[in-house]
Design goal:
Layout lengths: L13 H7 L10 H11 L12 H7 L4 H15 L3 H35 L3 E6 L2 E6 L8 E5 L7 E13 L1 H4 L5 E2 L17 E2 L4 E13 L5 H9 L8 H30 L4 H15 L4 H18 L2 E3 L4 H6 L3 E4 L11 E7 L2 E5 L10 E3 L2 E3 L5 H12 L4 E5 L2 E5 L2 H12 L10 E5 L7 E7 L4 E7 L1 H6 L1 E6 L2 E4 L2 H16 L3 E10 L7 H4 L3 E10 L6 H10 L3 E4 L5 H10 L6 E4 H6 L2 H8 L3 E4 L3 H13 L4 E5 L5 H6 L2 E5 L5 H6 L2 E3 L4 H41 L8 H19 L23 H26 L7 H19 L10 H4 L5 H19 L1 H7 L6 H11 L1 H19 L1
Parallel strand pairs: 9-23, 9-26, 19-22, 24-25, 26-27, 27-28
Antiparallel strand pairs: 1-2, 1-3, 3-7, 4-5, 4-6, 4-7, 8-28, 10-11, 10-22, 11-12, 12-13, 14-15, 16-17, 17-18, 18-21, 19-20, 21-22
């Protein structure tokens, strides 16, 4: 808590707050005092879940059951005198652990680097000078200067305010900007109405001011919510559970089979050491020791790919879960839309005009009846545009070749409309009085001194402005407004609202020289100029992404705080069917069973609160859905945690939302969610491919060794040879399978079932078949060359069988480049990394049988060209049979 107790700062007068915090509003704090307070209060940061130390991450790589069994195998090999085998096994264990550590630690460092890049800065008064600093070094008592566009870096008590307004929607859910003043408010004033306070994480949308820092870090309101968010439980993903279960099963099977065969051999009077060696060989052969490292590497590489597609994955397995998503619950503003308000229509008494263009780019024109018109030829429209740019605080700027708005998006839309009409306006002291907008007044007025007169320019909600109008501008002439004209005005803005447009009315009044400058005296007897309709246009790419999601049987549910009409209009524009619109108040009135029925249809949610999002997600999850949920505000954090995959907005998202999420959208775009799902499916498919490949390869080793033992033969393969084989065939080739491109039709199939095993019954039979064929061919080579086991022939037979099994596995990898289509359809050269991995593995095997050092370590002898010819000829069988099967079924699927 530090040296200053938490106080109700909103009841303090500005001078009292400054005195209490022992600071100076004209000078700020000095360096010594800042250092002292920083030591007392700590950094102005929200605490996250503590990051594991590097050694904890490293140790975690060696706690897998598969790794444990390999260590036992290494110890057994050492105690029976097979030191080379023991060293080889341990080398593989260490290599796998280091690979897993490197990938996981790198992913964490990338996230840490992102957090540092996103660290906010602020302008603060220190030792009498305004300086820009890292916001994390703020302390209570600092004097912070803020202006339009700034994020509030800590909790502030406002001490100076000039037309200061803030967007507090991320904290309070209030969509309209809130005006800020310096006078204190009552102690029991609700958070959203404490007009003298500025909350950490909110945004200045208008004006400028200064505030004294009263709370930092976890002591702020945003910090309090962050503490609550950390209580939401997070569980393992589907892939984590499946791989853990698979690893455990393989480990137990390996142990059981190894021990059983070892004991059986001893009972059959075979040598104890020989049978221990056989048991070790079987244990090593049965365990795909490369699986943990390969899965980790593949998912880590997938993280990098997703970043390129604007989705930063915060955890290795989050990408896989997103790939299984069956429902996307998405916000509207900024995700489905561009969050760039655009004027689309202008209504005046003399006619209605359309405005072309999108976003903040000032390219566009005015049309009437499909024909281009000039505002200069239409005095009524010119009057609307003139007032819209004068009663305004936003600025249009060009940065890095892109048009940006500084200020409120709605006011920005009006500035852009003015540019399209070649009309710009800078206040520069011309406005000598202002009555600001707030949720009670619902209008804003600026009084301009033209030099010859004072003119009040008014904008606001149409029904509010219209109620104060007695005249209307028609063809440039102000005339008394009739009842019929009033009805036409009402019909005009009602019609725009039905089209999903946000409406604003504009009016003006020329004041007498001695007219009192008070709200009630100025904002009456107005002349209505016209109505504008504004829309936040949908992103161009969203409609295509919606269709792609639908083809993948992924539902999209819009959950927004916006109005029902606007939300429905946007949804229909992007191709979403909407049968039912439910608002937050309506949700309060219906029970869960009725909501469940509504969720089965095409439903849209508007005017929702954070607790509504939580309720919707829980009901969807109750019926087995894997839910992806987007959010940006502090109040979205609990729902992001509750969702199977929480997706925070990278541009407009709060730090709390980002820390509660699994994925951060770097461009806040719905299309990037679908792209990430597509990438997640590709990764999961590739994981399935190399899991099947690894198991079929290891199955071949187990069956070959087991059969050789049952036939009463010699030791078919040494443990060192098995590990060399797994290193040569499993590691590089399996990793290369992770680079397989997206298969055709991946986004045309429905999401997999939540509890679908990573190995289905059909795929298990496929693994058994391929493993059996490879084992049979290996045994053929061994017994063909053994020839009754004459002295000196065992080494040759062992080397041929060892090499044949390596080549069989390298050929087998091509069977798993696609799960359904034949190789020519996939593209022989579409994964060049796999081709290089296979060629490199063959080169390593050549070294294993022709270099003296490896010959000694692996018990091999050189092979002749005749040996190689036989190996290559028979190895082609393992590829041709499955390929023929794929061709048969693929052509049948195409013709159907």
């Amino acid at each position: 808590m530090g040296e200053f107790a938490v106080k109700p700062w909103h009841i303090y007068e500005p001078t009292d707050a400054i005195n209490e915090l022992r600071t100076d509003v004209s000078k700020g704090l000095d360096a010594v005092e800042v250092s002292h307070r920083l030591a007392s209060h700590g950094y102005n940061m929200l605490k996250e879940e503590p990051r594991d130390a590097w050694y904890a991450v490293l140790i975690r790589q060696f706690t897998n059951l598969l790794i444990f069994i390999l260590v036992v195998a290494a110890l057994l090999s050492f105690f029976i005198g097979e030191v080379v085998d023991a060293v080889t096994i341990m080398a593989i264990v260490v290599l796998n652990g280091l690979l897993g550590f490197a990938q996981e630690w790198r992913a964490e460092n990338e996230l840490e680097a992102l957090r540092k890049m996103l660290s906010p800065r602020c302008v603060v008064l220190r030792e009498g000078r305004l300086v820009e600093i890292d916001a994390k070094t703020l302390v209570p008592g600092d004097i912070v200067q803020v202006e339009t566009g700034n994020h509030i870096p800590a909790e502030l008590r406002i001490v100076e305010s000039l037309n200061l307004k803030m967007d507090e929607s991320s904290l309070t859910g209030e969509s309209e900007s809130v005006e800020k003043f310096t006078p204190p408010v009552a102690k029991d004033t609700p958070l959203a109405e404490r007009s003298c306070m500025a909350w950490m994480g909110t945004i200045v949308t208008n004006g400028r001011g200064r505030g004294v820092v009263v709370e930092t870090g976890m002591s702020t309101e945003i910090g309090r919510i962050a503490k609550l968010t950390q209580t939401v439980d997070t569980s393992e993903t589907t892939l984590q559970k499946q791989l853990s279960e698979l690893g455990a099963k393989l480990g137990y099977i390996a142990l059981a089979v190894s021990i059983a065969i070892g004991l059986a051999g001893i009972l059959l009077k075979k040598g104890v050491l020989e049978m221990v060696m056989q048991a070790v060989s079987l244990a090593v052969a049965a365990i795909p020791e490369g699986l943990p490292a390969v899965v980790t590497i593949t998912l880590a590489l997938g993280i990098r790919t997703m970043v390129k597609r604007n989705a930063l994955v915060r955890g290795l397995h989050a990408a896989e879960t997103l790939g299984a998503a069956s429902i996307i619950c998405t916000d509207k503003t900024g995700t489905l839309t561009k969050n760039e308000m655009t004027v689309k229509k202008v209504w005046t008494a003399s006619g209605e005009f359309d405005v072309t263009g999108i976003g903040y780019d000032p390219k566009g024109e005015f049309t009437a009846g499909g024909k281009r018109v000039s505002p200069k030829d239409h005095p009524d429209m010119l009057g609307v545009i003139e007032t819209s740019v004068k009663c305004n605080h936003a600025k249009l700027v060009m940065e890095d070749g892109e048009w940006l708005i500084i200020g409120e998006p709605t006011e920005g839309a009006l500035v852009v409309m003015g540019r399209k009409a070649e009309m710009t306006y800078e206040q520069n002291g011309k406005a000598f009085a202002e009555f600001s907008f707030n949720s009670q007044r619902k209008r804003m007025t600026i009084i301009e001194n033209t030099g010859t007169a004072k003119v009040a320019h008014v904008k606001g909600a149409p029904e509010v402005v219209l109620s104060q109008c007695v005249r209307i501008l028609r063809n440039g002439v102000e005339t008394e407004m009739t009842a019929a004209e009033r009805e036409k005005v009402q019909e005009a803005f009602t019609s725009m609202a039905r089209e999903g447009l946000r409406t604003l009315a504009f009016a003006r009044r020329t004041l007498d020289a001695g007219h009192p400058l008070k709200e009630n005296d100025v904002e009456r007897s107005l002349t209505l100029l016209g109505i504008v309709g504004i829309i936040d246009p949908p992103r161009e790419e969203v409609a295509g992404a919606i269709k792609l999601a639908e083809s993948a049987k992924i539902r999209t549910i819009v959950i927004t705080g916006d109005s029902p009409d606007t939300a429905r209009n946007i949804a229909e524009r992007i191709g979403l069917r909407v049968e039912t619109v439910l608002t937050g108040p309506m949700l309060e009135e219906i029970p869960d069973d009725e909501l469940e029925q509504k969720l089965k249809g095409e439903v849209l949610f508007a005017r929702t609160a954070p607790e509504h999002k939580m309720r919707i997600i829980k009901i969807l999850q109750r019926h087995g859905a894997i839910v992806a949920m987007t959010g940006d505000g502090v109040n979205d954090a609990p729902a992001l945690k509750q969702a199977n995959i929480g997706i925070a907005m990278g541009i407009r998202g709060t730090d709390v939302a980002k820390s509660a999420s699994d994925i951060i959208l770097l461009d806040d775009n719905y299309a990037s969610i679908v792209n990430a799902i597509e990438e997640g499916r590709r990764q999961y498919d590739n994981i399935q491919k190399f899991v099947r490949y690894l198991l079929s390869s290891n199955m071949a080793e187990v069956l070959a060794i087991f059969a050789c033992l049952m036939f009463g033969g010699e030791l078919l393969l040494f443990p060192a040879q098995i590990l060399w084989m797994n290193l040569v065939t499993d590691g590089m080739s399996a990793i290369a399978l992770g680079f397989e491109p997206l298969e055709k039709g991946t986004m045309s199939r429905p999401p997999r079932e939540v509890n679908a095993p990573i190995l289905s019954g059909k795929s298990l039979w496929n693994v058994l078949f391929l493993g059996s064929v490879m084992a049979g061919l290996t045994l053929f080579f061994f017994y063909y060359y053994l020839d009754g086991n004459p002295i000196g022939r065992f080494a040759h037979a062992n080397s041929v069988a060892f090499t044949a099994l390596v080549i069989l596995q390298l050929v087998n990898v091509f069977n798993f480049r696609a799960l359904h289509a034949p190789l020519p359809v996939v593209g022989i050269f579409s994964n060049p990394l796999l081709l290089l991995a296979v060629l490199f593995s063959i080169a390593l095997q050549l070294m294993a049988v022709y270099t003296p050092f490896l010959q000694n370590a692996l018990h091999t002898v050189p092979l002749s060209l005749y040996d190689w010819a036989g190996i290559l000829a028979l190895s082609s069988i393992i590829f041709l049979v499955p390929e023929f099967y794929k061709w048969f079924h693929w052509k049948g699927a195409v013709t159907r």
